[in-house]
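Shift notes (night). Ran DUF295 domain-containing protein while the centrifuge was going.
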Amino acid sequence: SKVLYQFGYVPSVDDYKIVRIIEMPNTFEIVVHVFSLKSNECRKIHHELFQNLFSLGKIMSTLSYANVSLQSFETHRGVLLNETLYWIAADIDIWERKIVSFNLALETFDKFPYLELASSDVYHDNFLCLMGGCLSTCGVNTRDDVYITISRSPGRKESICIVRDMGLGSCQDLVGFTRTGKFFIVDRLSKELGLVDPGSSPIKYTPLVRFERGCNIDIINHVPSLISPSS
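Came back to this:
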């Protein structure tokens, strides 16, 4: 079986919740449990929609063009926004990538139709991220140009392009700020955390920290809380 864990804070009920999603082998049945830190209880979620909504499997169709391989997706790349967890998964009806959401307050699954995941011989969306409090996708083309697509509102999207000369084509994670427009970015190959200012001309990149080889680096967005996770 395949297992996916997600964690998030729910301000409306002042509670932390852990979501565990299990995909059973052979049958592909999806079993979902939600643990509440506030009540110290674990509940099984009964919802027919998610049974045909997604798979935790990985689409093994890594694209290649001009001898350059583009990363295929993995389901663990999830982000938390407005009490809802989002991640990339496989739509088992058409076996394509979809953005799946789980509302922590209502404890229901759904799709997110306002961002489409692009895949072609020259471009591939790699992961989800947050830019200024908006759900966004980040991808790279065969030139190693990085494109960030920001969903500002239904039907309204903005894009940022980071050209290959900045050497960030192997980025694996990022998170942006609401007020300044700048964002942190992590490079998978160099293990470097840096700061990008898209408002400067040209776009400015400032390296901040370089981590040891072999370590895993993730950027987690901060959600204000009234209670401590350790309480």
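Residues 129-223 form one domain. The first strand starts at residue 2 and ends at 10.
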